[in-house]
Amino acid sequence: ENVLHHAPVFAVLLPLCVCKFIICYNSITMLRIVHTRYVYVREVISNYGLSALAEIEWVRLKVPNVLRTFWVLRMGEQMIQILGSHYGEGTFSLYSMGKTLLVNGCETLTAVLGMTSIISCICHHIGCFFQWVLSVEDEDEKNIGTVSAILFYILALQTGLTSLDRDKRLVRLCRNFCLLFTAVLHFVHNIVNPLLMSLSASYNPALHRHLRALAVCVFLIIFPVTLLVFLWSHFTLSTWLLAVTVFSIEVIVKVLVSLATYVLFLVDACRTTFWEEFDDYVYLIKAFGNTIEFAF
Q1: Can you give the residue ranges of the TRC8-like N-terminal domain (predicted)?
Q2: Residue-range domain boundaries for the chain
């Protein structure tokens, strides 16, 4: 009985001794690694700042991938639970399950971070899609996913998304999505605007590139108009609705200004004589656009 009583202690002693031996044997290597890392961190902070170090480590540790995997696994588990408990019932529908998953997907700050990483990935691919449509490679606009993620997370913190009850949380989440959509439209305009100016100024004969750029501009006008019609017909006046309206009108005005400037450059390129009023017209159009943007 005494042997059996002390058996757990003896069973732990051997692995403990092995662990201590391995730690002592590799202590010099561990200290060298810690010292090397300390020197590296100190150099990065002194040369580039703490924010640069955080960004480097964020990428090195693949934090977005970890958060994205966490959120997807969490939603997958909840989906399986919902299907196992309510599938086949009369009140069950994919729409209600989707609402439940969205509400549960932002109930804690960690869950919001996971949803933010998913939104970042989606917005990044949206930006890549429009760059593919326009056949452009703009390095400055590849951060659309990062900026969209930051915007969504700030909106979630400002509106207290995690502290709201389930119904209000879903409404607030949809409102934040609307604001995010309008921000993405501004990013898309920043992609298509330089292309329009380049095509018109150089009088590029490639018709398909002109048509693609113009098709994106038409989308940037139709989508916010459709969104505003839907929102104003289903919701009452509020500060959130005014914000979405202002941002949508702003992107429409910016697109119209870009199209007007594009037409002026095309007309000037097609003319055989010097157009004296050309610079004045361009200045007036851009001044109008900047005034509207400043007012909003």
Answers
A1: 2-296
A2: 6-50, 64-295
